Amino acid sequence: MPILKSSRGFTLVELMITVAVLAFGIVSIYEALFISMDTYGFYASYLDTQDWFDQEILEIQDQLTQKGSLETKNLSGRIVRGRRTFDWSVMISPVDEDLGLYKIDATLSWKQGSRNASVSRAAYLLSPHLKEYNEENFV
Fold first, then answer.
1. In this structure, which of 90, 105, 116, 136 has its CB flanked by the most CB atoms within 10 Å?
2. Residue from 121, 114, 122, 104 nearest 42 by CA
3. 118-132 tens-digit pLDDT
4. All structural domains of the chain
5. Is 68 helix (H, G, I), strand (E, B) or coil?
6. Mean pLDDT: which of 18-27, 98-107, 115-124 is highest?
7. Rounded to whole angstroms, what are the CA distances from 2 to 5, 9, 23?
8. Residues of the chain by 3-state class (helix, strand, coil), percent to 5
9. Interval 58-92: pLDDT, tens
10. How far apart are CA 20 and CA 32, in angstroms?
11. End-to-end CA gap in the chain
């Protein structure tokens, strides 16, 4: 009596290949998820820092308006916003003191997961009396 081939199940090799492909797919999905979460966290912190930069530059502009000039100085400190602690530094340097032109370099840094993140911003401030002088001459 001839033996008929019955349909067999999957071989061990086929199952191992299937498990390996699925594992690779799952690892890739988790990797993409963690990268996107890290990126989201950085940009959420980045957006949270922008109003601090604006406020700091406005305060320095007010000092320049009141005094007419600024001292060259480096300032630094630490602020807490929400659950995150930021280290900041501001450097004020004259570009042309006679004209009342100053450069402001501000930097905020914080711990983002296992790495350090930072954002820098530069601005140029012009003394108000020079603005009025230029506006009168060009009208």
1. 90
2. 114
3. 999 999 988 876 655
4. 49-138 (3.30.1300.30)
5. coil
6. 18-27
7. 9, 21, 42
8. 50, 35, 20
9. 888 888 888 877 888 888 999 888 788 889 999 99
10. 18
11. 112
